[in-house]
Design a protein that fits this description.
By secondary structure, the chain is mainly beta. It is built from three helices and 14 strands. The chain is elongated.
Length: 212
């Protein structure tokens, strides 16, 4: 105690306790990377104050808006699994690695995007390009709508997952990629050609650029 000059194990009985000033809470890296037109909402609070978060639009987001790349640690083993999030892998130097995000300082805001349970609620498609994973909007997203993602057809094959989810009554059932034609094909704005996946459209547009 600076008032009585004594070293005490606890608070000073004569002058009382110290006034404790707490440090300001700093947002995690993932939260700081959130674009200004997106917001995080707490959807559920689990045991141990674990928050289940969702990413929501604050304004209209146009179709074919690209987000990314997804930030995570390259790992041969997934250390943090959440059934509400997509498992993501990339091909690097001939090896297949998980994009692992054990905490919010190891990733960006894309780690909060939940997976889509059916086509109706899907707003984003995930795909791999040059060893990175990106999310692209598959339709306009209205304000207060949650961003939800599923694999693009080619990336689904890479991840050994179903390309499409549909809802039948109360169940959510996966369909194999060959069982159903794409509902909303990707259309080239230059020549009008249609493609089953965004990756195919992207490579096709590269051809247009080469011609120019």
């Amino acid at each position: 105690c600076e008032d009585c000059g004594k070293s005490l194990l606890g608070e000073c009985k004569l002058h009382g306790p110290l006034i404790r000033a707490k440090d300001r809470v700093i947002p995690s890296r993932a939260r700081l990377t959130l674009p200004h037109y997106l917001t995080l909402r707490v959807l559920e609070l689990r045991a141990g104050n674990q928050q289940i978060l969702g990413v929501f639009a604050k304004k209209v987001i146009q179709k074919r808006t690209q987000f990314g790349p997804y930030v995570g640690q390259l790992s041969t083993k997934l250390t943090c699994y959440d059934e509400s999030r997509l498992v993501l892998q990339v091909l690097k130097d001939g090896g297949k690695y998980f994009l692992d995000t054990p905490n919010e300082d190891c990733g960006n805001w894309m780690m909060f995007v939940r997976l889509a349970r059916n086509q109706e609620e899907q707003t984003l498609v995930a795909y791999q390009h040059c060893g990175e994973v990106y999310f692209t909007t598959v339709k306009p997203i209205e304000p207060h709508t949650e961003l939800k993602v599923w694999y693009a057809a080619d990336y689904a094959k890479f991840m050994e997952a179903s390309a499409v989810f549909i809802k039948e009554e109360s169940d959510v059932c996966p369909l194999p990629p060959i069982a159903k034609e794409p509902v909303d094909p990707w259309i080239c704005s230059s020549c009008g050609s249609t493609f089953a996946t965004f990756a195919l459209l992207e490579s096709h547009q590269c051809i247009h650029k080469d011609r120019v």
